[in-house]
Amino acid sequence: MKNILFTVFIITGLLLTSCTKSVLDKAPLDSYTDQNVWNDLSLTQAFANNLYNILPNPEHNWDNTTNRTWALSSACDEAYNKFNNYNASIMNAGEFSHDNIEIFDIWSRTDKYIQDCNIFLSKIEDVPGDASERNRLKGEVTFLRAYAYFKLIRDYGGVPLITKPFDLNSDFTATLCSFADCVNFVCNELDAAAKLLPVNYNTGDANFGRATKAAAMAIKSRVLLYDASPLWNPTNDMGKWQKASYAAKAVIDLNIFQLYQGNYADIFTTMNPELIMVRGINKKNMWSAFEGVEMFLSPIGFHGKASFAPSQNLVDAFGTADGKEITDPTSGYNPQHPYHNRDPRFYADIVYDGRPYGRPGFCQDRYAAGHTNVAEFYEGGLDSPQGWDTWNNSMTRYTLVQTRVFHQQNYLLPIPREEILRTNLKQNPGYN
Amino acid sequence: MAFDRKFGKHKINAFVGYEQTNSNWKETYAYRRDLLSSQLDQLYTGSDKNQIGTGYASQDGRESFLARMSYDYNSKYLVDVTLRYNGSFNFPKEKRWGMFPSVSLGWRISQEKFFKDNNIKNIVNYLKLRASWGVMGSDDVAQYYFLTRYRVVGRAENYTYFGPNYSLAEALYLSATPNPDITWERQDSKNIGFDAAFLSSKLNISFDAFRYLRKDILAQRNASIPLYTGLSLPYENIGKSLNRGLDFSINYNEYKSKVKYHVGANFTFAKSKIIFEDESPNTPDWQRATGFPIDSWVVFKTKGIYHTQSEVDGSPHLSGAGPGDLWIEDINGDGNITNDDKVRVPYSATPKITFGIPIGIQYKNFSLDMVWAGQAMAKQLILPQMQGSVVSPPTWLYNGRWTKDNPDAPYPRAFNYNDYRNSVFADFWLRDASFLRLKSAMLSYTFSSHYFKKVGISKLKIYIVGFNLFSIDGMRKFGVDPETNNITGIAYPQTRIFKCGLNVEL
């Protein structure tokens, strides 16, 4: 028996030595490797492209990439979110805690991008190729990492500042930095990015939409503005305000941007000289049950979900045409005709009973049913709780915000707009 | 390559083998619409508007050397040895080969001389002892974790656009941090048992004790590695768990009497235990998985619901809690109710005990066959509102809900699936998933064959059978089947089926 066992092993041994390496030496065909990505500047750029997801996105995407500035409208008294899409009701009720923060917690998502930025910045120097291209990408990712930290400190205050990529064998301990240190870090990084980036791209440039020196400077002014605000400046240190204002002045002194003097609504829908940096998205996603903000906001008679609606507070905050508050007895506001004679912005921002909404071509079924593109929030109207889709009906019934979707734009620098509005008012008295 | 020989009382059977699998997947997809005419269905006849051309490929490979030898001495001693040496493409070069041996031994005591000689055989008709040990391996984990992989962004929500026309930019993302040490997950199985027959082989008993030790379990270290590292974690060989238990079955049959019958019972007791699982250092002791069954529940402890405002005021509670909300206990005593107050309980939805009882009776041409089955020592968490407001709440919850007019109600006030005070993992919602169920019962009548022989039919039987006819359980009163295995309580219901039929054998 021993002999037989021996033979068995001999045979096995023979088979083992007859190398069949090729069977097991497989490489994934659906992905690139380290060698690929960090030896080819076009792949390096593709890796950097994904990091632009650090910037806010106006899509809904079932909570995944939501620009919270509009989601949070329902957490304050601007709007009511009927389906409680973001669970903002816990904020309304004052019951927010780290056990129920859910979608409002950007910690893990943002840190993943920071790790990617750190990987990128640890490799970029050694990528062969055009030096100016390489420097531009380095500047972009430096900007994006600074923006990621800006997002973190805005939500959490001081955070650990991590600039080296981790791997599985790293020491995972990190120290928590103070808010002041974080502000310094972000500003220094933005300065470094600004040195590497072109001042601005014109709208025809293939790189339009990428980070620029102007954007880095604008973000810096915003970080300093937050630092000067009462939350982080309880003693009202004027030095902080000064720094913030110098940073803002530096952007103005670039002499590239101007306040837009045209039609109010066009500020949000056209390329205009107010835009410091834009993030492009696909318009078609706006009208989608999964990604679309427009679908979330539109009235039900237009096959929207009417999920977000303005509060009466917001509606009442629009004054009358002559710029007076509606509570002012001299304003001429008539509660019987609340939508007459209002601030022009009202007509651009609010969809109210009797206001046309959307191009006729987009709602032909309304015309086919004997209606028009005029919103009907009255009892029994197409957009009322008795309307086309009783499940999605609007709660507010008479008014609905058409929150202007920032199709392509995100404003990075707060610019006072009162002045322009006054001019607008004078120029377009019959503005609608 | 096989070897099979018999000399004297020795029987040897051996073989060696080699196996290799390779898979290559290649896919090309091309699409054009608006063909010039339906007469010729070729791609080039289509319009180039909205045309699509894309493709995808993947590959893998595995190798295995196998040697097996079995030896039998006089049908008394049985030895079986198997060796497997497996290689997988899914692990790095130095880690891709794994040796997986197994040995099983058998001893038919009833073949021994002393057994036959001493008349023991008249009482114990058959007796065999057996034992086995073996190691198995698994490479069943997503591909290529040992490599750094950059993949093309394919989710529309992560697309980026640049340039004057907002053209979609190609983008890559890092799919996971590489784990250069990834290798086979192993299971070490040990088993010892016996088979025995008594009373002229009418009574058969079989018993097994087993012990499965899983080690190097492929799992992610996402609990102990802080989120701020931003690592997308690969699978690592870190877990270890133990599953021990007993299998016992007993059958008695009587085929020679007028009323023929057989009755049996099989019973399994299995207990799992986590020896190592990646856990966060911040996890409180009372939530740690180590030492507990796999998938054991982590729940809030409750004292029912708050019935009065003074009960609320007199105890730590979630902010906004009032009468009608779950009364959650403050386990760590910090005066606040947080997720740290959840405790791990030694129960999971996997039953520790499962059993079955097959019964058959035959009298003349009639026969009745039944299968009873059941489980015990299992708990299932059912959150009754998890289906959301689209589905109306169950009657017991609706009628038993707390209201101002019904302050002594057993169940919380009306709540929805996202109510973090009531629709939460709490022992209040843990249900005992034990049951005893009549899985099937069949009554049949077999016609005497001589009636039909002429027409070529050898057997004719009519029967009526019912499935899922009856059960004793604790979950039916909540409108949920005890075999439901998810927390929403939504499961395809156990159907009760009646069938009658005719069975013809030619």
Global morphology of chain B: globular
Determine the number of helices of chain A (DSSP H or I, runs of at least 4 residues): 17
Q: Which ranges of chain A are low-confidence, i.e. pLDDT below 50, for 5 or more consecutive residues?
A: 1-20, 394-432
- Oligomer state of the chains in this structure: heterodimer
Describe the structure.
- The complex is a heterodimer of chains A (432) and B (506).
- Chain A has helices at residues 2-17, 21-24, 34-37, 41-50, 68-71, 89-92, 107-123, 131-156, 179-196, 213-228, 238-252, 266-269, 293-297, 312-317, 344-349, 364-368, 418-427, and strands spanning 79-81, 308-310, 350-352, 399-401.
- With 432 residues, chain A is mainly α.
- Among the domains of chain A are: 122-256, Serine Threonine Protein Phosphatase 5, Tetratricopeptide repeat; 298-427, no CATH class.
- Chain A has a two-stranded antiparallel ribbon.
- The longest helix of chain A is centred in the N-terminal third of the chain and has 26 residues, at 131-156.
- The radius of gyration of chain A is 28 Å and the shape is globular.
- Residues 1-20 and 394-432 of chain A have low confidence and may be disordered.
- By secondary structure, chain B is mainly beta.
- Among the domains of chain B are: 283-346 and 384-421, no CATH class; 351-380 and 424-506.
- The model of chain B has no long low-confidence stretch (mean pLDDT 90).
- The interface between A and B is large, with 80 and 76 residues.
